[in-house]
């Protein structure tokens, strides 16, 4: 078994999992259960999106993994290191971009980023730090005190601090909340590059379209329980729906009994038929429906199709658990 001084690199990982969570629970003194026996494995080199409404347990889970809070039960390993028994090695593998804009206000950008690198025992590497600051459009601000920066620039500094010690696992807790479009674009460009270089990235976000665009896998947490973990594409196939809107040439007073076997809804005062179906049932359902419409003498003037977004799936999942 390798010692801490010979930690395995991303190129030759000791296991397929970057983060292993077993039976993680958190109960506060007032009896509130923030986490209820969460089991989760996050693979090396993936972007994992953790979604959930406010108060679902996302930040609590991240805080425990990053050593900022104590679990009531369960265990966590990061890069093969137990976060309690081998705290220093586990924490040095982690970069965290928190929700709060907490920075060293009187320090310069360069000083605070350089200090963050040294804090984890990493040797000086000005070229690496310059690369990070340039990617975040902070290089021209490197001599500026953080207190003089805008909110968006301060958010960039938090990201630079999280990356300063070259972690293998990066946590982004609501990283784009309240930031400008330019920063969001820069950040996701960097995140994709980091993932391509082997870094594992875990993000929470209220912008579900970001998760749909960025993530390899999706986890949904609600009321402290992990409801599902799924490959994004598989999740969209499994839980996604398609909606077919058929605009009729002549309105219908009611649905003919011959169409009762289809999931149809008459809308817009009989001028529109709405058909909702699983994506997997597309081939079997639409052709017979169109034949039966013709058989009933119903003429279709226009057809529109739409698919469920990840947000639709997420909202439905949370609503079902409520």
Automatic annotation (TrEMBL):
UniProt-listed CDD domains: ABC_DR_subfamily_A
Domain of life of the source: Bacteria
Coiled coil segments of this chain: none
Domain ABC transporter positions: 19-248
Alphabetized GO MF terms: ATP binding; ATP hydrolysis activity
Primary enzyme class: hydrolase
Name this protein carries in UniProt: Daunorubicin/doxorubicin resistance ATP-binding protein DrrA
Organism in which the protein naturally occurs: Pigmentiphaga humi
Gene name linked to the record: drrA_2
């Amino acid at each position: 078994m390798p010692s801490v001084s010979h930690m395995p690199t991303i190129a030759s990982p000791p296991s397929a999992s970057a983060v292993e969570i077993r039976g993680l629970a958190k109960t506060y003194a007032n009896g509130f259960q923030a986490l209820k026996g969460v089991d989760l494995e996050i693979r090396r080199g993936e972007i994992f999106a953790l979604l959930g409404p406010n108060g679902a347990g996302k930040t609590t889970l991240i805080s425990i993994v990053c050593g900022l809070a104590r679990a009531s039960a369960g265990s966590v390993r990061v890069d093969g290191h137990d976060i309690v028994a081998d705290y220093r090695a586990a924490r040095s593998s982690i970069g965290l971009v928190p929700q709060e804009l907490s920075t060293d206000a009187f320090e310069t950008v360069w000083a605070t980023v350089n200090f963050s690198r040294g804090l984890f025992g990493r040797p000086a590497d000005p070229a690496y730090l310059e690369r990070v600051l340039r990617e975040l459009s902070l290089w021209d601000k490197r001599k500026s005190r953080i207190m003089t920066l805008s909110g968006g620039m301060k958010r960039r500094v938090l990201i630079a601090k999280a990356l300063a010690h070259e972690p293998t696992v990066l946590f982004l807790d609501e990283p784009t909340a309240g930031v400008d479009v330019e920063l969001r674009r820069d950040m996701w460009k960097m995140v994709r590059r980091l993932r391509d270089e082997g870094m594992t990235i875990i993000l929470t976000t209220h912008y579900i379209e970001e998760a749909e665009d960025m993530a390899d896998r999706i986890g949904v947490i609600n009321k402290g329980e992990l409801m599902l973990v799924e490959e994004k594409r598989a999740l969209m196939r499994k839980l996604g729906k398609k909606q077919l809107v058929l605009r009729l040439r002549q309105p219908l007073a009611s649905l003919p009994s011959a169409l009762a076997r289809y999931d149809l809804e008459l809308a817009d005062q009989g001028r529109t038929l709405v058909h909702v179906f699983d994506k997997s049932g597309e081939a079997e359902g639409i052709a017979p429906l169109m034949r039966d419409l013709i058989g009933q003498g119903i003429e279709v003037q226009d057809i529109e199709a739409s698919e469920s977004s990840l947000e639709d799936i997420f909202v439905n999942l949370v609503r079902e658990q409520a």
